[in-house]
Amino acid sequence: MKVEELAAQLISFPTEMPPGNEEECAAYLRDYFRDLDIKRCEIEIHRFAEKRANLIVRIGPRGRAGLLFSGHIDVVPAGDPNMWSAPAFEPRIREGRLYGRGAADMKGGVAALVKAIETFKNRELKRGIIFIATAGEERGFDGLKALIRDGKLKDGDALYGVIGEPTELRAVRAHRGGAIFKITSHGRSAHSSMPDLGINAIENAAHFIVELIGLRERLGEIKDPDLGSTVLSTTVIEGGIKENVIPESCQVVVDCRIIPAHSSEYIRSRLEELALRIRERLPTLQLTIEEVLSYDPLNTPRAHPFVKLCEEITGQPSETAPYGTEGPLYQRLNISTVVLGPGSVKQAHIPNEYVEIKQLHQAQSIYEELIRQICL
Ligand SMILES: [Zn+2]
Q1: Does 145 share its domain with 240?
Q2: What sign for the dihedral angle of Cα 7, 10, 14, 18?
Q3: Separation of 72 CA from ligand 1 center, angstroms?
Q4: What pLDDT digit, counting tens, does each position of 342-368 carry?
Q5: Is the domain of 290 the same as that of 227?
Q6: Quick one: 102 and 41 in the same domain?
Q7: Ligand 1 centroid vs 325 CA: distance in angstroms?
Q8: At a CB cut-off of 8 Å and minimum separation 6, what does 50 contact?
Q9: Cystine design at 158: which of 55, 68, 146, 213 (Cβ 3.0–4.6 Å)?
Q10: Where are the alpha helices (DSSP H) in the chain?
Q11: Which helix (DSSP H) or strand (DSSP E) does residue 321 occupy?
Q12: This prediction's pTM
């Protein structure tokens, strides 16, 4: 089976997140590895919820593995079928491209990682390889978090990590962290003909949003040489029940992208500080601030030997990315990680998603070279 054929097989599993349903796709990969009949190979499905599963495969000698190869097998929803020129989960090859939901993000990358491992299936490895297919990457990394929580991957299990997300075959060594805050403005309902009897939760939230824009500007003054500055944006607002009722509740969602100099705790404290300051002039303001999720930044140094090796093999300088990945979760386990894979992030999350088949083959070769240099 060629890399594009394996990628097509993976695309045919509709692993839309939500709800996930990754278990069948993980089981397909488990069977694929079993059929390879690699001598020293442990294969385990890690089921963490109904129809939700990761796959972890350990190949070669015990002890600290040389490489961890990782990719997620969930995909974002296909959306409106009318926007696709063919069904999203019926992969098709046309003019050198493989089309289907997940072609670029990132079943193509997963297939290339697996095929690279397959190339060495009969070789004696000096250092082991760990392969992980994760579930739920598109929603707060819930699969990988469960895998680590359940002790399936431990601190220092591997030296270097590669996540095959679409980077057009360049090594991404750093990206910002992130956090999502849900802020609830609490008011009191009243008839809108007598607004003074109530507390308008939407209007109070509006004061907060305006101040938030000021906070963004202040945070923007601090620049990371690689990653720019921390940004935050109001992305969702919800409130009110009827045109003639003073709203008693309003929710605002704030999405933050955070440079290593800051942290989600720091941003939270700044948001709380804002609320206190507004309250001094607006005593009816009552807010609760809740962190829905957060993730660390990835910051593998530019001069790290693994980054240098990836630059050498890809023939391209390493770079940074504006989006988040599972990388920081590996980084926390002392696995120096880069993101490097086939396809473009511009293709991710859109109708008629595709990956260039040539890039799938190039990715496979890059991964093979990494194995050759680190594990043989
Ligand atoms: Zn992805």
Answers
A1: no
A2: negative
A3: 7
A4: 999 999 999 999 999 999 999 999 999
A5: yes
A6: yes
A7: 7
A8: none
A9: 68
A10: 3-11, 23-36, 108-119, 142-149, 201-219, 264-281, 305-314, 327-332, 357-375
A11: strand 319-321
A12: 0.88
